[in-house]
Amino acid sequence: MSGIILHHYGTSPFSEKVRVAFGIKQAAWQSVKIPVVMPKPDLTPLTGGYRKTPVMQVGADIYCDTQIILREIERRIPTPTFYPGPAKGLAEGVAFWADHQLFQASVAVFFGAMGDQLPDALLDDRSKFSGRPIDRSKLKMQGAVMSGPLRAHLGWIEDALHDGRKFLFGDAPSLADLAVYHCVWFVRERGNCNDIADYTALNVWADRMKGFGHGQRSDLDSKDAVAIAKTAEPEAIAGGVAPNALGLKAGAMVSVTPDDTGRDATVGELVGLTAQSVTIARDTPEAGRLHVHFPRAGFVLVPARV
């Protein structure tokens, strides 16, 4: 079986979410560093257009979005579980809130603190990514405005942790901890912000999460990752295509697009569909036949215009 490859860059908060997940599992993985801004010439052939970070690769299977990345890591390395005790289902809901509402506030506070230091190329790329212009002169005010919502969101976590629990669902870390932590890491570690410095229980918990480290990492060149995909075969899809409101059948050409930012569509042949995931097959000259996997929540699946 091929090993786990993560396409990421060091300052990416969603990549930190996955890196700490590897730490919890004490997993071995290969690290491919990708550019912070577009273009990403060795990644785009694997994803077919999806541009968010990170992307996980196992042979010729490509996993887009941390929601499905962490689910796949759990399937491949089931212990220790990301779903201890009552966390299953509930942790997914907390993670979806953290990945969207909490993350939006975290980004605004980070850019407010660091906007003066960020290169023009990054701001231009993120303007295209978000679909709206970013005005450097307004970042500090926008960060100040969103500091209140950030504190409100993380105040709930502070209150929960004040009962002495080590993690959000008890004595073991869960998917929910990973999702909240990457937002805290972004403002606390990357932005050096003091907006949440007085949240004592939250900061103790964040130090505990940081202590898991990043597992067993080794470096891999991006071109070698593409070559690995080309020599591999995608794993068989269990269950095929489930009945769905769109009436899509296996073999249909479909388009999958994030519903928030980075709305670049990936088009391919539908080969797998469940309540939680969609898998499309793509044939590429660079990497051969690939299966590209996406979560259902947070993505729009429609018939492709061909």
Which properties best describe this structure?
306 residues, Glutathione S-transferase Yfyf (Class Pi), Chain A, domain 2, 9 helices, 10 strands, 41% helix
Give structural notes.
The protein is α/β, with parallel strands linked by helices and 306 residues long. It has a domain at 85-201: Glutathione S-transferase Yfyf (Class Pi), Chain A, domain 2 (Up-down Bundle). The chain is built from 9 helices and 10 strands. β8 and β9 form a beta hairpin. α1 packs parallel to α3 (66-76), α1 (13-25) packs across α7 (175-190) and α4 (90-114) packs parallel to α7 (175-190). The relative contact order is 0.18.
Give a quick precis of the structure.
Helices cover 41% and strands 19% of the residues. With 306 residues, the protein is α/β, with parallel strands linked by helices.
CATH second-level architecture of one domain: Up-down Bundle
Report the helical percentage: 40-55%
Poorly predicted parts: none
Beta percentage is 15-25%
CATH topology of one domain: Glutathione S-transferase Yfyf (Class Pi), Chain A, domain 2
Mean pLDDT: 96
Give the neighbour order of strands across the main sheet: 5-2-1-3-4-9-8-7-6-10
Largest sheet features: 10 strands, mixed
Q: Structural class per helix/strand content?
A: alpha/beta
The helix count comes to 9
Radius of gyration: 19 Å
Topology of this protein?
Elements: E1 4-8, H1 13-25, E2 28-33, H2 44-47, E3 55-58, E4 61-64, H3 66-76, H4 90-114, H5 120-130, H6 139-161, H7 175-190, H8 200-210, E5 216-219, H9 222-231, E6 253-258, E7 266-273, E8 277-284, E9 288-295, E10 299-303
Parallel strand pairs: 1-2, 2-5, 4-9
Antiparallel strand pairs: 1-3, 3-4, 6-7, 6-10, 7-8, 8-9
Helix pairs in contact: 1-3, 1-7, 4-6, 4-7, 6-8
